[in-house]
Structures are given as structure tokens and as C-alpha cells.
Design brief:
single chain; alpha+beta; Beta-Lactamase; Helix Hairpins
Length: 277
């Protein structure tokens, strides 16, 4: 089309560029001589403080592209206009004599990217907090395993001592039985000798009484030792269960911690990808 240059073309297609872009974008086309805005198509959220016919601000990406005659890429934070965006400006030349005619800038909203960054930051904080909790949990599991080991040792000592006590009581029982037999024999001999054996008979009766008391005491202690042995077995079984649970908890916490670290790495990659967008 005669009399139409590339600058005019971009002025005409600027609204179409806005519609063709899947992102939220704003289009600015300015001429080089007076740096006047020839076309401005606002985005859904990107509402730049410019109008057609205004002179473009000297600090804008469009003016910098005109001055430097090169592609300019700028990332603008939301603290400037209230919304974050990425501005990409490109100088426009005449096809015939390569005269600089102006520049076009496409300004892409970074609102979603900012939301992703904020979410990634929150995820990272949550991961850090969870990691601390899991580390403490794993440490407590190790402490519980150590306590279980001590309890197992105490249970073994209790069982061994109960067994030793039982052996001692068996020996005492045998002594009491022999003493009772000795007292019985002594009573028989005292009766055989008659009046002369009366004093000896008193001693024999005391020996037999002592033997009976010892036997009775042993009979009373034996059930207690039985209870101690059963209790020791129950403690040992409970300790074994605690150790197994502690081991499962420790292993599980390590697996969870590894998963958290993977999520942490993914969050970092997500942040990096967003920042490099």
C-alpha cells in the first residue's frame, strides 16, 4: 500500500496484537521525531498513564529504544503503577532508506508471575518450618529408641535377678527340707532316750519350726517372683514394640524429610523459572 510505512502498519494492527496475545498486554506505538504516542491499547489490568498524542516520558522503554536504536527489555515492579509488568520495546525503521521512524512496546502483565512467586515464597517458608518440625520429630524418635534400649537393659537385669533369686530360694528350700528332716530325727532320738532327751527335744522342735517358717516364706515369695518374671516379659515385649515403632517413625520421618527437600527444590526451580520469564 503506497504511502504506508511500517510505523503506520503497527499503528493499525496494534489492537489486533492485543487480541492475538493470550496474555494480558498493553501496546504503545510512538514516532521518533517528536516522541509522540500514535497508538495506545490498554490491557485488562495494565492501564498505563498515557494517551494518544502525549509525548512519551524520557525514561520509558519506548524512548530508550528510540535513543539506543535497539531492543529494550524492562521489568517494572507494582510499586511504580500498582501492577507489575514486563516491557519489551523495539525500534521501527523505514523499509526503503532504513530511517528510524519510531518504536513499539508490548507490555506484558506479570501479576500471575508475582502471585506464583509469593506462593512459592510461602511454600518455601512452610517447607522450612515443616523441615524443622520433622528434624525435631526424628531427634525425639532417636531419643525414644535410646530410652527403649535402656528399658530393655533394665528388663534383662530384672529378669536375670529374678532368676537368680529363684535359684537361691530353691537352695534355701532344700536347706529347710534337710533342716526339717534333721529336726524330725532329733525329736525321734530325744523320745528314744526318754527323760534325758527332753532338752534336746525342745531344740529339735525349734529347728523344725524354723524350717517350717522358711518353707512358708519361700511359698510366699515364689508367687511374687512369678509376677516379677511375667512383668519382666511384658515390659520386654512392650519395649520391643516401642523400639519397632520408634524405628518406623525414624524411617518415616527421613522419607518425609526427603520428600520435603524435593518439594523445596521444585519450589526454588519454580521461582527461578518465573524470575527468568
Amino acid at each position: 500500500m503506497e504511502g504506508v510505512n511500517v510505523l503506520d502498519c503497527f499503528v493499525r494492527v496494534a489492537p489486533l496484537l492485543r487480541e492475538l496475545n493470550m496474555s494480558d498486554v498493553a501496546i504503545v506505538v510512538a514516532e521518533a521525531k517528536n516522541r509522540t504516542i500514535l497508538s495506545y491499547v490498554p490491557g485488562e489490568t495494565i492501564k498505563l498513564p498515557v494517551e494518544v498524542g502525549n509525548v512519551v516520558h524520557d525514561t520509558s522503554a519506548v524512548v530508550e529504544s528510540i535513543i539506543k536504536r535497539q531492543k529494550i527489555v524492562r521489568k517494572i515492579g507494582k510499586e511504580i503503577f500498582g501492577f507489575p509488568y514486563l516491557g519489551v520495546a523495539l525500534p521501527l525503521y523505514d523499509d526503503d532508506d532504513h530511517e528510524l521512524l519510531g518504536a513499539i512496546s508490548i507490555n506484558i502483565s506479570l501479576a500471575k508471575e508475582d502471585q506464583v512467586l509469593e506462593m512459592a515464597d510461602e511454600v518455601e517458608k512452610s517447607i522450612d518450618e515443616t523441615s524443622e518440625i520433622m528434624e525435631e520429630f526424628a531427634a525425639k524418635s532417636q531419643e525414644l529408641m535410646a530410652i527403649s534400649d535402656n528399658l530393655a537393659n533394665y528388663s534383662t537385669i530384672l529378669s536375670d535377678n529374678a532368676s537368680k533369686t529363684d535359684n537361691i530360694l530353691k537352695i534355701i528350700g532344700k536347706i529347710a527340707s534337710q533342716t526339717n528332716l534333721l529336726g524330725l530325727n532329733a525329736s525321734i532320738e530325744a523320745a528314744r532316750v526318754g527323760e534325758l532327751g527332753k532338752g534336746f527335744d525342745v531344740v529339735a522342735k525349734e529347728i523344725r519350726k524354723l524350717s517350717k517358717d522358711s518353707s512358708d516364706s519361700i511359698q510366699g515369695i515364689n508367687p511374687i517372683l512369678g509376677i516379677l518374671a511375667e512383668t519382666s516379659e511384658e515390659i520386654s515385649s512392650a519395649v520391643s514394640n516401642i523400639r519397632e515403632i520408634s524405628h518406623v517413625q525414624a524411617s518415616g520421618s527421613q522419607e518425609i524429610f526427603a520428600s520435603i527437600q524435593n518439594i523445596h527444590e521444585l519450589a526454588k526451580k519454580l521461582v527461578a523459572m518465573t524470575e527468568n520469564h
